[in-house]
What does this fold into?
Amino acid sequence: MSQIDKLNNSYNESLYNLIVNTDHNWTKSWATVGFAQQNSKNMEYNGANQIVLFNRAVNSEFKDPRWITFNEAVKNNTPIKKGSKGEFIGFFTNTASVLKKDDDGNPILDKDGKKQYELVKLDRPVLKTYYVFNVQDAENIKPFEAIQTPEVPNSEKYSKIEKMIENYCKDNDIKIKEISSQNAFFSNNRSNDIVMPLKSQFSEIDEYYAVTFHELIHSTAKCVERTNKTTDTKNGNVFGSKNYAKEELVAELGSLLMCQKFGLSGFATNEENNTLKSLAYLKNWLEAGNLEKEDLSVALRDANKAVNKITSYMELEKENKNKVEKHSQVEI
It folds into this structure.
């Protein structure tokens, strides 16, 4: 066995032990409560309505998760912009608002002369449907009151990260869509979109980049040949399957390596919280996929390939700059 193989085996053994022995519980590093698609009263939509509206939010890149009806917009003096498209949703209800009447069948009015209504229970549920519009398509709406956006430090490190991501995404036809979301994911089935929660949902900017790196590593499956080439279907893996678990190992290990390379939280400081979260995440997928130590070793190799692919775009800007400078020189 060569010295390199011995070193790799030692590293894999140490990493595996760290993962399986961690007692840290994984939690999302971004806020989720209050960021689902919701109505004007901040009540979250359920079931199919949530799916329909979230899909539209992704496609239209709506950062604001609030939706209103046309009548609400008129009533609140927040008119819908011309040409805006609404989404058709509905729900079943066993109550209805009916006009209150006196014994003679006349409407009962309040002190201001307005008709009074009351909520009554129906014998059976009825379907109520309507169109809703995202508030970004309405005028005079106050901005969504999200938590304060973490500030991106003005340093060379973060500038390099942003430029690298920009170059990689541009060259591989990938678009990062930052919207109000409870999840982060790479939509490899129908597009090359990476959906990220708002920066304001993260308490630390390093956590935002760590999650972005995770999704970027997933996207490299289309441009970097994996050691593990097997997928459940031609369009990808089924959630919770063994192959799905293997790919999650690749993405999280790649994120760890990227954070280490750029000295982000957990590596640049003595705070280990982000690193512990990653170890807990890796442990979850090792157990969920019933994976072995060799699976971790393969995932680490694939993660390194993916990281090398993405970080190669740090040099792209430098190469382009050198070319411009070279062509701009005039011989005398």
About this structure: The chain has a mean pLDDT of 84. The longest helix spans residues 242-262. The chain has two domains: 3-30+148-317, 38-100+110-137.
